[in-house]
Structures are given as structure tokens and as C-alpha cells.
Hints:
Elements: E1 2-7, E2 22-27, H1 29-43, H2 45-72, H3 79-95, E3 97-104, E4 109-115, H4 129-146, E5 150-161, E6 164-171, H5 176-185
Antiparallel strand pairs: 1-2, 3-4, 4-6, 5-6
Amino acid sequence: MINVGHLSGGGEASRRGETGDLSVLLIKTDSFVKMVGSLTNCFGTAGYAMIYSMGQENGANEVKQLRQDLRRLEAPADKKELLDRSMRRVSHMGWGKISVSEYDPVDGIVNINVKANPFSDKCGAKEAYGCFFLHGYMAGLVSEVMEEEMEYGVPRCLDVEKGSCVLRLVQASSNTLHKLALQEAVP
């Protein structure tokens, strides 16, 4: 079921039209997963890259919109605050309870807790299309906040348990990604 509607009243000042309404599209998780999963059916493994890229672009756009909203409100935010606000917005949009568990700008590491995500029942499965989208979304969002390309450390999900996981993103230009890979290789 897809439901398009408008929300009026309070809430965040993003993506509002002249009437002050927030345009919303509600879609069942299964419908979303089938929709993005069709990319892998049509394009094979390239479909996974498309799903990830769609998420990445949308995550970056979310931060750009938040920055614009904060400028209009004359409420500048440092990177940590912008990251926390972005995670709250994503949580409010229904992507789960998402928060930053580690923020280390020196080593270029950001760990994100994801709980009660609509795709968590498929985590680790071949058809985890929603997870690919969410991983891309988080990479785009964190890269935009950090103003630097962020990649997933090894492994992509840390501390995976039923209904939650921790995503680790590392600055692509840092030596930290290489160090993490070496740590994983050593028994």
C-alpha cells in the first residue's frame, strides 16, 4: 500500500511547501524492498550498487536540507551536532532508532547504532535490499556531515543482534581503514 499525504502543524521545517505542509509518502516495508529488489532482478549485481547509490545520494541530500534549515534559523551546528540532528531526523522518518555511538574525528571513525529498523529481519540475507539502501543512506549522510568521503570498515556491521546493529564508517583518506583491515586479518 502506498499512501501519499500531507502533514500540517509542528515538526521540522524541512521540505515544506508554501502552505507549511510536509509532503509524505508512506509505503509498506515489503513494498519498498520489492521495489528496490527489482533492480537486482533486472541488473544483477549492478542492482546492489544502484540501491546503495540511491541511498547514498539521499542521505547526503538530507544533510544538505538540514544545513539549509539551520541557516534559515540562524542556528549553525558543528559536525557532531549536525550528525546527531541528522540521526534524529532519520529516526523520526521511520528508519528505526538511529544514534551515534562513537564519533572520533581524529581517527575518522563514526559508529552508528541502528535499532528497530524496518529491514532488520533480513539483516545478513542475500535479499537485504533495504539494508543496502540504509547503508548507502548512512554513508552519504555521514560523508556530507564530515565533508569527506566515508567508507565502511571491516566488517560493515559490528555487533549484529536481532533487531539491531552497529555500522562503522571510516574516512576513506585515513590510514584507519587499512589498520582496521589488518586487525581483522590477525587471529
